[in-house]
Specification:
The structure is a homodimer. Chain A has one domain: Rossmann fold (3-Layer(aba) Sandwich). In chain A, helix 1 packs parallel to helix 6. The N and C termini of chain A lie close together (8 Å). By secondary structure, chain A is of the alpha/beta class. Chain A is built from 6 helices and 11 strands. Chain A has a 7-stranded mixed β-sheet with strand order 5-2-1-6-7-11-10, sandwiched between helices. A two-stranded antiparallel sheet of chain A has the order 3-4. Helix content of chain A is 32%, strand content 22%. Chains A and B meet through helix 4 and helix 5 of A and helix 4 and helix 5 of B.
Chain lengths: 170, 170
């Protein structure tokens, strides 16, 4: 089974973390919640509480098979850290599966890894994705090689299905 | 005195709205809080409550002398509306004063008005500003003709000083 890194901070969109997290665990994958420090983070809608298990300074891309970035305002908080951007860059460089939903792709913009990649995301960041030289596609799920992205909670069933398919290929 | 439009939604950064708002009022300027609908919006930190006075569909740039965009996650929520982007574009086109702090410039990115403009903003949106062809300057306040921008709450005294100076020139 795969070992999946999740990047999380306060104000994550609750269902965008919970539903894929539960689906990955149910299939037997190992999911590790990573943040900037060990603490409890809180979702923006249903105030889901999640424990950060590992600090970004203590992890390496080599230790994982895939990366998952939930949306909400968590990505905005995470992308100011160089260690977070370096971690994300390594997954893209190694072409390991990267799953980003809603505002998740904001971290990919800051990590400068979207040039000529097909991607989707929440409509507020559409112009940012285009300016980052990505090809923005307004669809429920966009699969571009290792990169899988979706727009919002409504897209979760399609997002999860494609993520699980990609994990099965490992 | 000047008539200033403020664009506001939930999760605005409390002090970034309140301090300039109070400073503008104190100097005798008329400040009108505009949102997507008439409702009470709530700040992200101290949970400041503010009444939206006018809906974006009922206002025109012609009715105002200046525009103020506070930060927090309010700009992310506002920039998905075409009416908001059109309103902002008109201020920039007419070269009327535009004041943006923190995440405020996200709306300017979506309105596509930052090309070759000097600007600053919260560090999470630095790459987005650069990708929008703006010249990002990491300083407490950046004045580029009609456009005044700052990075964060700590910059407020400098931001307010430059905004008031610009309003005095009207």
């Amino acid at each position: 089974m795969a070992k999946i890194a999740v990047l999380l901070e306060d104000l994550f969109e609750d269902s965008e973390f919970l539903k894929p997290f539960e689906a990955f665990k149910e299939k037997g994958h190992d999911v590790v919640v990573i943040g900037t420090k060990i603490k409890t983070v809180t979702g923006m809608k249903k105030y889901t509480k999640v424990e950060i298990e590992k600090e970004i300074k203590d992890v390496k891309e080599k230790d994982f098979d895939a990366l998952f970035i939930p949306g909400g305002y968590s990505p905005d908080k995470l992308r100011i850290y160089d260690e977070v951007l370096a971690f994300v860059k390594d997954f893209m460089k190694e072409e390991k599966p990267v799953f980003a939903i809603c505002h998740g792709s904001q971290i990919l913009i800051s990590a400068d890894v979207l040039k000529n990649r097909k991607v989707t995301g929440w409509k507020s960041i559409k112009q940012d994705l285009i300016n980052a030289k990505a090809t923005f596609i307004d669809d429920k799920v966009v699969v571009d090689k290792n990169l899988i992205s979706s727009r919002m909670p409504d897209d979760l069933p399609y997002f999860i299905e494609e993520c699980l398919k990609k994990l099965n290929e490992l």
